[in-house]
Write a structure and sequence with these properties.
The chain has 11 helices and 11 strands. Helix 7 (about 245-255) crosses helix 11. The relative contact order is 0.13. By secondary structure, the chain is α/β, with parallel strands linked by helices. It has a single domain, classed as NAD(P)-binding Rossmann-like Domain (Rossmann fold, 3-Layer(aba) Sandwich). The chain is globular.
Length: about 350
């Protein structure tokens, strides 16, 4: 039975951190979850192989499903050389077009198709917040490096491929999400907290650039809200109402962990570090000041609207997940000298 509250959910490219958060959430509340993945895995939910490039038997998972959520795309945490740029772009636009083609062939197309996008689509913003109605698409800033245009090109090409797909019977939402923070190992929060734990959690660059973020519980609840509210379509920002400068963001994280030690990183230090870590400084230095106007106007309420409260919750849960004591950051299973 098709309803505003989904019961059959397909997650394409759903084996990463964000896909796992959604699969875990929807599975835990009784929905039928299928994950389309390039790699095999043992999970509580159904995992179906696809290559993200060609039509195959995986199409049957979409037929009669309530919701399809496409999260496919390789990580942007790499150097933006020609090969990586091509793969980053094609790994997003290709699967998006493929899912559109698959939906167009279905006897019973899904009621809703949510496609990942990114809050990075907006300009480098220090002056004001970017919402869906007043936000400015980036790419023409005079105060941002030319190299940052690549991320804008990826985001806009991704959304063009999504909205160009001819699926008249399926509502479509482009999920312009900020960074999703959870205590899971290897996720963005885990990496940020590692800096703080090793005394490197000071301001990055000037520290004035804004950080847009969303707590994992608000993220999954926002997706559930979008499924239930059929009046919402097109682009929707999914970000906490409290973006804040990097300096304040890291200060709150240090306080949540219980340390005052902070070594700042200048832009030249970040450039050297990014080179050796095979990543780009844009991920740290671009000011993302994005808020969710459409969600709030529709009645969505954030459980964690302010970063200090979210940081405290995530640190406590990280310690539980990692079995780490608040005392000196030691393992609960290790002996502490008297």
């Amino acid at each position: 039975m098709r309803s505003a509250r989904a019961s059959q959910i397909v997650l394409a490219g759903g084996s990463g951190q964000v896909g796992t958060l959604l699969a875990r959430h929807f599975h835990s509340i009784g929905h039928s979850v299928s994950v389309l993945s390039r790699r095999e895995s043992i999970s509580p939910w159904r995992v179906v192989h696809w290559d993200g490039m060609t039509l195959g038997d995986w199409i049957t998972e979409l037929d009669g499903a309530d919701v399809v959520i496409n999260l496919a795309g390789r990580s942007v945490n790499c150097r933006y050389n020609a090969a990586n740029r091509r793969e980053i772009l094609e790994s997003r636009t290709g699967p998006t077009r493929l899912i559109g083609e698959a939906i167009a062939r279905l006897a019973i197309p899904p009621n809703l198709w949510i496609n990942a996008s990114t809050a990075t689509i907006y300009r480098h913003a220090l002056d004001r917040a970017m919402d869906e109605s007043t936000g400015e698409i980036g790419g023409k800033e005079i105060d941002a490096p030319e190299t940052w245009r690549f991320s804008i090109d990826v985001a806009t090409s991704w959304e063009r491929a999504f909205f160009a797909s001819k699926t008249p019977a399926t509502r479509k939402v482009a999920l312009r999400s900020a960074i999703v923070l959870s205590p899971d190992r290897g996720g963005a929060f885990d990496l940020l907290l590692r800096l703080v734990r090793f005394g490197l959690g000071g301001a990055a660059g000037s520290g004035n650039q804004f950080v847009s973020w969303i707590h994992e519980r608000d993220f999954v609840q926002a997706v559930e809200f979008l499924i239930a509210h059929e009046e919402l379509d097109e682009a929707v920002n999914v970000a906490s109402p409290g973006p804040l400068p990097n300096r304040e963001f890291m200060r709150a994280l240090r306080k949540a962990w219980g340390t005052g030690i902070r070594l700042p990183a200048t832009e030249w230090m970040l450039a050297i570090g990014a080179f050796f870590l095979r990543t780009e400084t844009e991920l740290i230095l671009k000011s993302r000041r994005v808020v969710s106007k459409r969600l709030v106007d529709a009645g969505f309420e954030f459980e964690f609207p302010a970063w200090p409260d979210a940081a405290t919750d995530l640190v406590e849960r990280w310690r539980n997940v990692q079995q780490v004591s608040p005392v000196r950051g030691t393992s609960k299973n290790s002996r502490i000298a008297a």
